[in-house]
Amino acid sequence: MSLPINLTNRQQQVLWATVRHYIATAEPVGSEALVKEYNLSVSSATIRNAMGVLEKSGLLYQPHISAGRVPSDSGYRIYVDKLIKPSTEATSQIEQLLAGRLNWDEWSFEALLRGAAQILATLSGYITLITMPLTRTTELRHLQLVQIDPERIMLIVVTDTYETRSVLMELPKLEDDAEIDAEKVDRELQILSNFLNEQLKGRSPADIATLDWSELGREFERYSHSLTSLLADLTRRFSQSSAVPTQILISGVSEVLRQPEFSELHHIKTIMHLLEEEQHQLMPLIFDQPDLDGSGRRVTVRIGSENPLEPMRTCTLISSTYNRGSAAVGSVGVLGPTRMVYEDTIALVEATADYLSDALG
User: Fold this and answer.
1) Is residue 232 pLDDT above 70, yes or no?
2) How far is CA 27 from CA 21, 23, 71, 260, 321, in A?
3) Domain identity same for 295 and 329
4) Residue-range definition of the domain harbouring residue 110
């Protein structure tokens, strides 16, 4: 995600400090508090000016006229994407607890999942959602690239259950603006189709991420970027359509009740109804996979209004899949208020997913 405006270093520092202070206190933040608690080396007037810019750009807002500012969903998004890194301390802490308290050799995998859910809920302070693993995963049977017209090609994918997906893409332009030779394109598409089948037949859609385009040579470079995006989109679609684990293991409801955002009985009731009665709506969200965009992100973070389900629009859902081999078969998620300790929670979710992948391996 790109910054909505060109924030200066000072404005980024003020946004970071405002989010950190609000996460810690649950109280609107004023410039005086930032001067006292953070070494920003500027006057409160300079901080007020920066906060005003952040408010105008939609990253902060005032809940009341006389109050300080609090982060908006967009402010949290910039904070998560640009201003923090997962906590190495949180990673070490949960790795030690998972290794020390759970027993791979003597426990069933369901017992491991339940134990991991409890540990994750206790450390994060939020609701933990861990899915039971899929009993089977989709395998790719055939892939074919076909030229539709001089400007478009179609990718057709067939699975082992004969489910078919097809998507159109623009034919990549030639660097020298030469006229496209339809027969040459057909030959190139057949070579690409053969390559895709050789690499992916009998494998999971998740394995699309492991394709090494360099094996094809430089003459096919113009296809690789567009096809990578296209295949990533298909991977997400297959994951969502095949992701029907029989159960979500839930832990940590008592933990999250300590958060002021869940003090209203009506709010927690709507969340519990979703968790207990509407799991089929929750499943595509918790089993979503991050974009295969080269950023290295291993978690999906849905903040507030980014969640499509109404009860979750004051919440953040952080999730990551756990794997059997290279295939995603289950998911680890944490649901809490948008005022969440993101550095810790992202690290905790990643480490738990890694632990379960190792346990399955």
Assistant:
1) yes
2) 8, 8, 11, 11, 34
3) yes
4) 88-134+245-360
